[in-house]
Design goal:
The chain is α/β, with parallel strands linked by helices. Strands 1, 2, 3, 4, 5, 6, 7 and 8 form an eight-stranded mixed β-sheet that branches. β3 and β4 form a beta hairpin. α1 packs across α13. The protein is 43% helix and 14% strand. The longest helix is centred in the last third of the chain and has 21 residues.
Length: 286
């Protein structure tokens, strides 16, 4: 395999199911596995940031250490701020004070990093590179802003929500950006098929001023399932390696059971180790 081929890492979201991804990325750090390009949406983008800042264990800590803290996740947050996750707590208090994010290492990483968001006005994906995250976590906040359960995030004069809504597994963007070999990390098992969105009546009302956003939510399951089919096709063609849970995950994006989250993290770590050991040459090493 040509050593000059551009290797990309593609990370889907999934809220707390992203603990699987955290395990995968910690294994990569342990083994010194790096990529030329990395793209993530929602939780995938957040976990990617700690991977690129080389802060092993940080994603796991952030997603488990504050489960009992009302500022992190819960219905009280939703009632008080319009978001199940405490966005100010997660994207300001934690990275700037409680568990500092190493922006310097992150910004010096030679890996090309892209985070996906959804433009509320158009309902289409938008993407931001590392330069938009210079000591500013607004893009990660926007990428993680779950429709209905989070408020719209404004950035550079535009309005955004969860990147996983419009481009849930951003492999096509990675291919457009020149990647020739992809490692794709999924947070649902290989048998999973997404159903239509719940709360349709609610989001139709919430986004009445943004009909394109509501339409994107209407077809989200179709876009997601098609992206998975595309990923599996690339795998068959020898152009991608997929790392996914081996059995149904069975937890929600708002999971608060520490033991279940630990098990999911460990499953990601183990699956990464197995996949790296069995993959064709050129996917995990130049």
């Amino acid at each position: 395999m040509n050593a000059a081929m551009k290797r990309g890492l593609v990370l889907e979201g999934g809220g707390m199911r992203g603990l699987f991804t955290a395990g995968v990325l910690d294994y990569f750090m342990d083994e010194g596995i790096t990529f030329d390009y990395c793209i993530g949406v929602s939780a995938g983008a957040c976990h990617a940031s700690s991977y690129l800042s080389q802060q092993r264990g940080r994603s796991y800590r952030i997603n488990t250490a504050y489960l009992g803290d009302g500022r992190y996740l819960g219905v009280k947050n939703l009632l008080r701020t319009g978001s199940m996750f405490g966005m100010d707590f997660i994207f300001d208090e934690i990275p700037n004070r409680l568990d500092p994010f190493d922006y310097d290492t992150f910004l010096k990483n030679p890996c090309e990093f892209v985070a996906g968001v959804t433009d509320v006005q158009t309902g289409k994906p938008a993407y931001f590179g590392m330069e938009a995250m210079d000591h500013d976590a607004t893009v990660l906040r926007a990428s993680s802003a779950i429709p209905v359960f989070s408020p719209i995030v404004e950035f550079r004069g535009r309005k955004f929500l969860d990147g996983g809504t419009s481009d849930p597994i951003p492999l096509e963007k990675a291919l457009r950006d020149g990647c020739e070999r992809l490692v794709i990390v999924l947070t649902q098992d290989r048998t999973y098929e997404k159903s239509p969105e719940k709360f349709r009546g609610l989001y139709k009302r919430l986004y009445a001023r943004y009909p394109a956003m509501a339409a994107t939510l209407d077809r989200r399951h179709q876009v997601y399932n098609e992206a998975r089919r595309r990923a599996f096709q690339l795998e068959k063609e020898g152009k991608a390696v997929i790392i996914a849970p081996v059995r149904p995950v069975g937890i929600s994006r708002f999971e608060k059971d520490a033991a279940r989250l630990r098990a999911l993290y460990e499953a990601g770590f183990a699956q990464a180790r197995f996949t790296v050991s069995t993959a064709a040459p050129g996917f995990f090493r130049p």
